[in-house]
Amino acid sequence: MDEADRDEAAQPAADDQIRDQVRAAARAARDAAAELALLPRGAKDAVLHAMADALVARAPEVLAANELDIARAEENGTPAGLIDRLRLTAERVEGIADGLRTVAGLPDPIGEVVRGSVLANGLQLQQVRVPLGVVGIVYEGRPNVTVDAAGLTLKAGNAVLLRGSSSAERSNTALVAVLGDVLAERGLPTAAIQLLPSHDRASVRHLITARGLVDVVIPRGGAGLISAVVEQATVPAIETGVGNCHVYVDARADVDSALRILLNSKARRPSVCNAAETLLVHQDIAAEFLPRAVAELRAAGVTVHGDPEVVRLGGAGVVAAEEQDWDLEYGSLDIAAAVVESLSAATEHIRAHGSGHTEAIVTDDVRAARSFTARVDSAAVMVNASTAFTDGGEFGMGAEIGISTQKLHARGPMGLPELTSTKWLVFGEGHVRPAG
Amino acid sequence: MDEADRDEAAQPAADDQIRDQVRAAARAARDAAAELALLPRGAKDAVLHAMADALVARAPEVLAANELDIARAEENGTPAGLIDRLRLTAERVEGIADGLRTVAGLPDPIGEVVRGSVLANGLQLQQVRVPLGVVGIVYEGRPNVTVDAAGLTLKAGNAVLLRGSSSAERSNTALVAVLGDVLAERGLPTAAIQLLPSHDRASVRHLITARGLVDVVIPRGGAGLISAVVEQATVPAIETGVGNCHVYVDARADVDSALRILLNSKARRPSVCNAAETLLVHQDIAAEFLPRAVAELRAAGVTVHGDPEVVRLGGAGVVAAEEQDWDLEYGSLDIAAAVVESLSAATEHIRAHGSGHTEAIVTDDVRAARSFTARVDSAAVMVNASTAFTDGGEFGMGAEIGISTQKLHARGPMGLPELTSTKWLVFGEGHVRPAG
């Protein structure tokens, strides 16, 4: 959570007031959700296009608000990287608007018949997709998440409670004002998209404990934020985006292919959750593979933290790994590396240290591929492909609200269907159930 | 939770020990789950049949253990109804064994390809069903749940941690011993099916907070148990089985059909969660319907708690409803009843008071049916059919582990597919993701 959120202790007396505010927002969101659930696709897509147009038309006021956030961040000595995440430009606002248009173009999941049958007694059974209801999103600095999340949840017929960072408060307020005006113009409830107070951490606590009012909470951010939300929530929560991803180079790997996949998995964008953090190399290929791998990783600016065998084969540039390295999500140009004696030693290592996000095997051996995909229990398992492909856009989902690393409800990239529930419709002709 | 569980305060010093015991069991279950995940269907079905045979063959020792539980329950003055739930007979053991054979006959959900496609870049994408891993079940008196839950979780490739009632401790221990011996005979890990200590409520607390070791907890029992588990769990939990179900008789209902459905929904088995607890009648049909409905309900032994209009039309036998009646799950031969002025007043009443389990409309009007099914957001919505049909067996699932009344992961009766997760398999030929 951002620095600016840490002023809770300064105003404990306001806790009841914040709770009342959050719960009132959630109640209004419930009423709005009941309306949204009945909107046909055409109406939702028209709203999304209108929101995109309004954002572009009103970009000047959004950018003016953003400048106030930027100025305050600069005054507070916020690092340049965080300020860049916070900054909006006319171009970025265009990109955000295009995101809404993309969502408008995606199929509507609501009403889809997932399963259906006619029972022996003639009852007709249909399992159909319905909205979740009220979705809470807890996130950090980037203001684009405000609009992305609002667009996706709206398309899936849900109301959304947005709890962003206080550092982006003015930007988020301006963005939600634009979206809310479009809802109001079309006679739709503005409570469908609400921004919660961000100056006090109590608002997170009250959001994630509003059981019965909020249907799901999705934290988006660093491991600390996600863990805090999941531990404290009484509302169902979906864990997202922590990735200690592995690349395993099998005995029978094509070395050139393995190098390409390793470099792409590690260095393409080291800060994202699908980046590789650990390299495992089969002992039979280690002597051939590791010297080249270490050289190419170093050329790409990556520090290799190796076990003794990697240190021996990789040369002077390898740093000795410590026990904790196997469990780290570096998020930086660092990688842990170990030599393993077999494929099952690799899958055991992954089971002991992995976060269940994405693991890749590079191999030409069909039996090794089959064994790896069966044994590795992660959201995504790649065979001869980069870990960087674990992404809603790459998977053809059109957009994603996050990447789930838990096993319940949704696993891997979450698109529109993952923002829905189902209900059973049963059609009879006066059917009653026999005794017994 | 049962009376005998309430001795926690007597031995607080044992808390650490119980935590260690639960966590050790969970770790062993994780290892067992990794083995179970790889078992092909044939092996799992053979184990289930062998378990069924062993239960029948060893029924005498199970029944002897059960007699000790019964004797203790009688000494403690346990009500006859609870003793009946606890009691096993040779016939009931046969029934439990047949349940395992039914599960063996169900399709194996594991490995099912849920979605799949080839992406524009040639990557092959498959979403396949995998086991959840380690499933915790917290339940009350009935010893049959021990075997039913073990069979279903095993078939779906999961390990199970069973936390039953202390009142059934000897029965459950005997049952799990039989199942464990069959696992051992076949070289499978006995940690796949484990009974947790039941004499201390701390074991529930440590089970539902073993995040990272247990993948899901499913409470089965009364509203108090379910609420306590869901509120305190840091492991994902699935809410089951609380039902304040409604029957709405529309203006254009067939009265005979409505009476049959109402009586079946209320009186077939009043203690189960799919029994109707509230009757809503459209004002245009109230004068015709209510006198007959009240008479038939009373003839079936049902007490009607009516609003003033129901009291007026239903005659002297109707008790005046109090505000709380609209929110009760009686679980008994009682029903709340109100006259509503419109279909939307009925759906508003359901939204305000329902538990999201099952609601039924009786109508000959296709527009009313369409409106009701769209507006009512419950796990199951019946049109001209009894609420009693919400059941895994009736829905053709073969067996159920419970009925989910929440919206995440599973909603309505949960069969084998609901005891699984998925993972994405991605097959490439050295694919790397372009920059950008």
Explain the layout of strands and helices:
2 copies of one chain form a homodimer.
Chain A: H1 15-36, H2 41-57, H3 59-75, H4 80-86, H5 90-105, E1 113-118, E2 124-131, E3 134-139, H6 144-155, E4 159-163, H7 169-185, E5 193-195, H8 202-208, E6 216-220, H9 223-232, E7 245-249, H10 255-267, E8 276-282, H11 283-299, E9 303-306, H12 308-314, E10 319-320, E11 334-340, H13 343-353, E12 358-362, H14 366-375, E13 380-385, E14 402-404, E15 412-414, E16 420-431
Parallel strand pairs in A: 3-4, 3-6, 4-5, 7-8, 7-12, 8-11, 9-10, 9-11, 12-13
Antiparallel strand pairs in A: 1-2, 2-16, 14-15
Helix pairs in contact in A: 1-8, 2-5, 2-7, 3-7, 5-6, 10-11
Structural notes for this entry:
- 2 copies of one chain form a homodimer.
- The first copy, chain A, is α/β, with parallel strands linked by helices and 436 residues long.
- Chain A has 2 domains: 3-232, Aldehyde Dehydrogenase, Chain A, domain 1, CATH 3.40.605; 245-389, Aldehyde Dehydrogenase, Chain A, domain 2.
- Helix content of chain A is 42%, strand content 20%.
- Chain A has 14 helices and 16 strands.
- Chain A has helices spanning 15-36, 41-57, 59-75, 80-86, 90-105, 144-155, 169-185, 202-208, 223-232, 255-267, 283-299, 308-314, 343-353, 366-375; strands spanning 113-118, 124-131, 134-139, 159-163, 193-195, 216-220, 245-249, 276-282, 303-306, 319-320, 334-340, 358-362, 380-385, 402-404, 412-414, 420-431.
- Chain A has a 7-stranded parallel β-sheet, with helices on both faces.
- In chain A, helix 5 packs parallel to helix 6 (144-155).
- The longest helix of chain A is centred in the first third of the chain and has 22 residues, at 15-36.
- Chain A is globular and about 70 Å long.
- Chain A starts with 14 loop residues before the first helix and ends in a 5-residue tail after the last strand.
- Residues 1-10 of chain A have low confidence and may be disordered.
- The interface between A and B is large, with 69 and 68 residues.
